[in-house]
Amino acid sequence: MRFVVVTGLSGAGKSEAMKSLEDIGFYCVDNLPPTLISKFAELCYQSKGSIEKIALGIDIRGRGFFKDLNDSLETLKQFGYEYEILFLDCSDNVLVKRYKMTRRNHPLSSNTDIVEGIKKEREILNELKQKADNIINTSNMKPRDLQEEINRIYLKGDTKGNLIISVTSFGFKHGIPLDADLVFDVRFLPNPYYIEELREKTGEEEIIRTYVMNSPISVKFFEKLSDMIDFLIPQYLEEGKNHLVIAIGCTGGRHRSVTIANLLYDYLKEKNYRVLKKHRDYTLR
């Protein structure tokens, strides 16, 4: 039997994760009081194969119940019931945007602001996060991306390092992405902006990619960039990092950064890394 406890930060995507698990055959139960977990697990393990996969959703909405979760999980170990923890994480700024978009209050921000509620929740969940078997950072994920990651881990059994790489293009004039781990400046590459017939196009188009990469400097830069990324990723895997954000920036985030970000995304996909892509500013002026 596979018994998965799904938890994490409020707004990080637990509901979507539970839906995805249900779609691949998990029997899903949401917000069961922690004091009942051991009894529930006992019933499941005594089902004699009628229930093969269980997903149990637990989050901070349990409030008073949540502090009992660690004790309940320890009881499962004592009884010999095997379980996994899936933790949904997300950056603070993205969580704030999600709450503002949905106009919902954070469960711990009734008497304070959203940021303080998130901070308090992180403190409460930190110990549980350290125990997690799989951590998914949904900061740059769409629901479909999360579904694919759930399928990769729980359907295909691929848990290689749990590292998700996000490649983001941006424009320096709009600010550096707050969640960037690595930032590369490509403002020295050939700029299509100064070619009138290319100015309104973006790095998503082949004519722009050809223009940017039709230079020995561009080719040499990408060789060195990919070589550095090849060196760094194993170090992050060794460290246990679960989300790496690589930001590629040019002046406006429309041509050069989009081109290089696309090339890097394709390069990492070919190496079978879990990689996401986001062009933050290419539609802006």
TrEMBL record:
Where along the chain is ATP bound? 8-15
Checking HAMAP family in the record gives: RapZ_like
**One annotated GO molecular function:** ATP binding
Q: Does the keyword Transmembrane helix apply?
A: no
Q: Which keywords appear in this protein's UniProt record, sorted alphabetically? A: ATP-binding, GTP-binding, Nucleotide-binding
Write down what this protein is called.
UPF0042 nucleotide-binding protein
Sequence positions that bind GTP:
59-62
**Which parts of the sequence belong to the RapZ C-terminal domain?**
164-282
Pfam families attached to this UniProt entry: PapZ_C, RapZ-like_N
Domain RapZ-like N-terminal, by residue range, is 1-154
Q: PANTHER family, from UniProt?
A: RNASE ADAPTER PROTEIN RAPZ (PTHR30448:SF0)
Presence of the UniProt keyword GTP-binding in the record: yes
